[in-house]
Structures are given as C-alpha cells and as structure tokens.
Design a protein that fits this description.
Low-confidence stretches of chain B: none
Largest interface: A-B, 23 and 22 residues
Strand content of chain A: over 45%
Structural class of chain B: mainly beta
Radius of gyration of chain A: 13 Å
Distance between the termini of chain B: 41 Å
Number of helices of chain A: 0
Largest sheet of chain B: 6 strands, mixed
Mean pLDDT of chain A: 92
Helix content of chain B: under 10%
Shape of chain B: globular
Strand content of chain B: over 45%
Number of strands of chain B: 12
Number of helices of chain B: 0
Structural class of chain A: mainly beta
Oligomer: heterodimer
Chain lengths: 115, 116
Amino acid sequence: SAVISQKPSRDICQRGTSLTIQCQVDSQVTMMFWYRQQPGQSLTLIATANQGSEATYESGFVIDKFPISRPNLTFSTLTVSNMSPEDSSIYLCSVLKTGTSYEQYFGPGTRLTVT
Amino acid sequence: AQKITQTQPGMFVQEKEAVTLDCTYDTSDPSYGLFWYKQPSSGEMIFLIYQGSYDQQNATEGRYSLNFQKARKSANLVISASQLGDSAMYFCAMRRANTGGFKTIFGAGTRLFVKA
C-alpha cells in the first residue's frame, strides 16, 4: 500500500486568497491525482500530475485557478487560487501504485472552507 | 463517454444480513477496471475490491464480493454478514486500463446504514 499525508488537514480562508495543499507519499509513484469532493457529493477529478510533465486538467478546471506542482516522485502541491465560497470542498490527493493499474490510494483530504 | 451510475442514494440493512449495492457503467473501451471504495464519516477513501474487464471470475475480498455481469454492464457490490462498522458511503468507480491516463471516474455513491 501507499501512505499519503496531506497538509493542511483543514483550513478556513477568506474570499480572494489562495491556499496551497501539500501531498506527501511514503514511496515513489509515477501517477498522482487531485480530486475535489463537494459536500455530500462524489469525487471529481481535477487533474493528473505526473513527475516531469505538465499536469493534465479535466474539463472545467484550469491551471490558472488550480496550479499544480510535481517536483519529484513523492510530493505534489495543489493551489486553489483566488478562492470563492464555491471552492469550499474536500480536496484529495491520490496515487496509483507504480506497476499496477488498479491499486489507487487516497490521502485523508483537506477540508477547505471559504468565507 | 464513460459513466458510472449508482441508483440507490441510501440503503438500510439489518446487522448480519447481506446487502447488494448496485452499480452500472457505460464505456466503449474493451479494457477497463471496476472498483468499489468505502468512505466512512471520517472522510478517508478505503479501497475494497477490484474487477478487471477480462477477469473470468467475480472478485472477492473477505466479506466483499463483486457481482460482475459484463453483458449487462453491471458491477454490484455484495457485502455479506453486515456489521455496524459497514455504515458508510460506498462509491463505485471505473478506470480505463491503459488509455485516458488511468483516470478514475466515480459514481454518485450509496449511503449504507446498518441497523442493530
């Protein structure tokens, strides 16, 4: 398995500010993903972040709003920029275990509230 | 386009009984994977079971089994001998095996309530 930690675990932010969420994995992984889960909803993929390449964003998500860094095989950050109350969600980091196509693990999530 | 459908927003089951959570999917890809995750109130996503589209036998993991009916495009989760700790949100998910960047899409989820 893979152990994933996220910082911060939760935060309350003011409208118009930005928050950077960190994701740390205890082993090297090729594929990392960022998801958003709005209250009472399912998970929506924001982007795929592979080391050494630009993140690939899903429809409805753009780099200016959700810039992602992936400096190495164990770490990634997601920034939520110019926040509005609609950005209040849980943000989850996820990794696909290298060498498999199905072992996907999730971090504990970052609960963001924008006021 | 890929799609996952979970038609049961909520389900109740008596402790120690079995329960089936429904999931149907839609894809034109021949190779894909189907998953079930459990999300308790703590928010963590717990991987339960995986079924590959070419697997001949239904997947089983302890009390969890996946009833895979490929022709019907269904991948129902069966939980046997329900326990109070099984009360949680359950998500069905699908991933194309090699194309599409290994992206996983999730259904809307089913909230399971286990009654004592």
